[in-house]
# Entry
Amino acid sequence: MQRTTVLLLLLILATIQAKEEQNNKKEVDCETAKESVERSFQILSISTRQLGQKCREEKRECDKKMREFAKLEEEKKKCDESLKGLDDEVANYASSFDELGGELQKCKQELENVGVGTASPDLEDTKTELERTKGEKETLEAELATEKQEKSELQEKLDDTIREKTTLQVEVNALRENETFWENIVAKQKESKESLQVRLDAEITLKEEITKELSELKEEKIQLQKLAAENLVNYTDMQTQMEQLRKSIDRLENENKNVLTKLAICNELRSEPVVDDDTNEIDNKNMTEKCGRIGRGLELTRTNSGIYYFNHITALPWLSANDYCRARGLELASAESEDEILEVGRVRSLGYHVAFWTAASDRGHAAGQFHWPSGRKVASALWFPGQPDQVSHGREDCAYVYGSKLKDSPCSASFYFACQVPQECIPLLS
# Structure
């Protein structure tokens, strides 16, 4: 139950961490959006200022053109007045010219009436007056030509003024349209600025909400971490207790196996005389009696290196196999040479199991230093490549034959095993 609670808390913590990471990402996205909005706001502010400045410049230019246009209007009025005055003068000159022409005609008529060669003071006066009138006429004609020329120049100047006025009117209209265009742009920029301001306010509000939610999640995470730490301590204690119980169960199972093995051995030996292994002095008679009962009821196999019993029926741990052999006056096989290893491994061709316990172990020695019961160290040539490897696989203190080489294994593992007849008993069995 507590384990389930701990797993549930760990799952809740993982969910909170994922949500916290999601909120952090959302906050980063919010900051990025805020920065983007602020940059856009700054760009729009700069653009608005630039547009305002350009609009003011256009307006000043328009005002300047309008002043020039008003000045040209005044000059046009003056030209019109001057032309009107010149027209009046020309009319006066024409009227005077007509009057002089009439007087000149009268003078000619009078001359014709008087006749050629007649001289009188009035005639002389008339001639003089005629000459004077001719001079005035020429003067008036010259002045009239000058006035006409001035009138023509003023007309040209007026035409230029009208054309310039038309051009200025077009430019003024264009400036007014441009001013309207920029005013519309400024209005749109203001609307966009207001929209961005609303969006920025919304982003700020969202950020505040996310920050508040993140703070609440952090507090909840801290509380759950405290609760998880407390439950983790309890879970660790439970794991330690379970491990101790598991070790105790393994130990009890091994002891139970040993007891059952010994009980089976005792049941088999009830009908047989008990061999006293604690006797320090054994005479030849006792030796003959002991060796005579070795392997009784067992199927022994004789090889060039010795006499063996191969148990391929019941797989036992190493200690139980050793006890099984000793209870029958035998020993776990000590294949100390390659020939003996081959003799034991060759049993595989008889149809027996491929792996058999041997007497080699590092019990009582440094880890990995395997010895035979005789005290001799196991030769390195007898091992499979990479064996023994208990340094990397834990405590593997016992050795077994696999084919034609040795391998190490935990002594608690169960294998079939090979027992051998003690060397001192082989001659008696011959």
About this structure: The two ends are 68 Å apart (CA to CA). The longest strand covers residues 307-316. Confidence is low (pLDDT under 50) at residues 271-282.
